[in-house]
Amino acid sequence: MTELSAALAAAEGGAASSGGSSPLFMYGFLALAVGAFWLMSRRSRKQQQTQQEFRNQLQPGDEVMTASGMIGTVVEVASDRVTLESQDGSSRTQWVLAAIARRTDPPVADDEPVEDAAVGDAQRIAGANDRVIDVPDDLSTLDDRRDDGGKPRK
Question: In terms of pTM, does the model score above 0.85?
Answer without folding.
Answer: no
